[in-house]
From TrEMBL:
Name the record gives this protein: Malate dehydrogenase
Annotated PANTHER family: L-2-HYDROXYCARBOXYLATE DEHYDROGENASE (NAD(P)(+)), L-LACTATE DEHYDROGENASE
Substrates-to-products reaction catalysed: (S)-malate + NAD(+) = oxaloacetate + NADH + H(+)
Binding site for NAD(+): G10, S11, G12, Q13, I14, G15, D34, N96, V119, T120, N121
Gene it is expressed from: mdh
Species this chain originates from: Methyloligella solikamskensis
Amino acid sequence: MPRSRIALIGSGQIGGTLAHLSAIKELGEVVLFDVVEGVPQGKALDIAESSPVEGYGSKLVGANEYAAIEGADVVIVTAGVPRKPGMSRDDLLEINLKVMEQVGAGLRKYAPDAFVICVTNPLDAMVWALQTASGLPHHKVVGMAGVLDAARFRYFLSEEFDVSVKDVTALVLGGHGDTMVPLTRYSTIGGIPLPDLVKMRWITQKRLDEIVQRTRDGGAEIVGLLKTGSAFYAPAVSALSMAESYLKDQKRMLPCAAYLNGEYGIKGLYAGVPAVISAKGIDRIVELDLTSAEKSEFTKSVDSVKTLVEACQKIAPNLG
Ligand code: A3D
């Protein structure tokens, strides 16, 4: 079997972590790309020099030219700027939109068959911009946010209940922002839905609400601690789980920022929904039967994505 090629556009904190993890997992040849000269080359060499110690044989290259990503099977996009304390994800829109236009042109030319995972914030608007700028099919361009948001929720729940993270499942819908919708009804401890655990008095509704809010604020909590940037370890593993599902045709059902074409009554926008990722890309979108309260929270969240996409269209009218 030919080796897979994984291209990482943006070789900053998340890009570097993705390169290291991809090499350790021997997912294929790794291409680190960045506009800053020396950074992708330096990170590629540093990670390659760790391979004799760890004993993995992954090839890594660093580049400042898009030609280096030619023939990539998977492209993970983290190019742009992260937020600093006091900034919202939406504050990044203007600068990262320009970056998505450049990356989109590179993808169109050199990696039109790739499965593309966008991580750059504000996520749901940036994945829309990236798909529009690249012209790649909707089912091959997806955003990573839900896996991370659900992982944060799962971690907080495992701490609260003092159980293994392995036995905690969680589902988070909507846009990757303050209005995201952690769905308690579809989140479980050992298969027991959270509302049942409230009834069983394992947790109070008030405490559960606090954990839901901490999940919504999960990104800001890390930004507040780091002060110089945003989270990168958990975002990197989350994006890689989506890449692996595609490369290995695992058909994992993961919350993804997927293009909605009528699902949930929404057309022409990306938003976080459960989806199956196979070797085809986004294979299936799962349409849940939401309660009216869940539906109104989801609508509110999607409305904020819509506002951001409209802002993108105003700034870059030629984009779409
Ligand atoms: P950072 O370490 O700054 O890396 C970004 C890299 O992008 C830098 O190396 C830049 O040089 C590079 N870059 C800038 N402009 C371009 C360009 N035009 N072409 C190619 N590369 C460019 O940031 P990071 O890795 O911490 O975060 C990257 C992005 O991910 C930010 O927008 C974050 O807000 C976002 N992020 C998203 C999540 C989600 O869950 C969606 C989580 C955490 C971070």
